[in-house]
Amino acid sequence: MKKVKDIPEEEELKEKDTTKFNFLMLGMAIVFLALGILLVSCVPHILSLTQLCYLLSAVVMGAGVFFIVRYFMTEAYKNLQEYGFSVGVILVAAGCIAMVRSEQIQGGLLYVFGALILIAAVFKFQNALDLKALRDPHWYVWLAIAAVFAVLGILSVINPFGENEAAHASFTAVVMIMDGIMSIIGTIYLFRRINQFLKREADPDAVELPPKDRPFFLKPGPEDADTFGSPEIPSAPDGPSTPTVPNASAVPQPGGESNTPSEPVIIRPEDEV
Length: 273
Description:
two-stranded antiparallel sheet; flat; disordered N terminus
């Protein structure tokens, strides 16, 4: 059996980046779920949209402060391409602007939520394509779910409810709750599928997958001969080779064409004169 080599350091870095991205998507899904619950339970009974804008602005500012503090506490400034400080400053600035302009923003807040639902649907499309690349048998189910949420996001943006703001808010809130739940399930499912595949590739004792079962982006090529092994050529059996001669029926006959050749006749040592 051919053994698959361990994943190189670059592949381990890619795995870490994938893990960070999945955790980011999981966090966004939880935020979506919390916003949907808050929107359907508190607006307009407890909070108005303006007060909700103030609350969300404070949350965004708090997240920015967290990124800035984390950037310095983890000494991320010693590493290249660490943008925690920049992200934190942008979030703090966005929170301040939203808090100052809450009266103007609250009128379009539901449309912003609808646009976020549409953006989340695009990520679901990408997750479905990733599952297809991993040859997951249920990838088309997630593709259909992404299409449904894309339609719901478009409906939330175009607002078919007209002046009925309460119905628009309730519809958007319910869609956000469903989107958050499906995003959490989908992210965990994709995360597990990727981990299973990477563990199978990293296991030195793992049996090499047939080409038809490998994702198309990891099919071995000529440059991967050292990793996946070169095709084996069957060796000849031990011992002296046995001569064979054509059957007499295949020899051309006088005055006619040769008959259809049949199986060769094997001459054994004991039959020789």
